[in-house]
Amino acid sequence: MEQRKDNKILLHACCGICSAHPINYLREAGYDVNVYFYNPNIFPREEYLKRLEAERILCKKYNVELIEGDYRPEDFQEAAKGLENEPEKGKRCDKCFELRLRKTAEKALGLKIEKFTTSIVISPHKNYEKLTEIGTRIAQETNLTYVGINFRKNDGFLKTNKISKELNLYRQHYCGCQYSIRPEVS
User: Fold this and answer.
1) pTM of the model as a whole
2) Residue of 165, 97, 110 lying closest to 136 (CA atoms)
3) Rounded Cα–Cα distance for residues 117 and 145 (Å)
4) Is 147 left (phi over 0), alpha (psi -120 to 50) or beta?
5) 96-116: per-residue pLDDT in tens?
6) Where in the sequence is the domain holding 173, given as residue range(s)?
7) Among positive and negative, which fits the CA dihedral 124, 127, 132, 138?
8) Could you report the per-residue pLDDT of 11-21, keeping only the tens digit for each?
9) How many domains is the chain built from?
10) CA-to-CA distance for 45 and 63, rounded, in angstroms?
11) Which CATH number goes with the domain that contains 57?
């Protein structure tokens, strides 16, 4: 059965844990999901590779296409320049979200996919409204549609964690960038 062109969506994935429930949710909603892993903010490279491998495992399990973006930490450093001392959830994070969502929109355009969204919003540590505002603005600028879904609703965060535990996916201990690493408490 051929998929309708208008039901394709590009899901930006920040990590395997966060994208598990969104993939299921979008598929149940009738979308043909393609996953885009673009995260130049992740530091160090070893951490990036662990998160990418978790995403590969998840996408293989759910039989969805994984598109791997280039790992260019210098892109994040440029976006975060001057904002290194901002607190978590501050302007640096906004710039990081904008960088990743803009690149997702560019990838969607290149793939002729008219809709995009992000798994970042499933985290209770992220601002759904801010992410939706950024995604919607980028969508307007690129003539695409940002699909703002609060994947946290109806126990989405619990569901995504349950899936990730069942698949034994790598679980990170910080958001991703070097500025979000917190010292471990003994």
Assistant:
1) 0.93
2) 97
3) 9
4) beta
5) 999 999 999 999 999 999 999
6) 7-180
7) negative
8) 999 999 999 99
9) 1
10) 26
11) 3.40.50.620
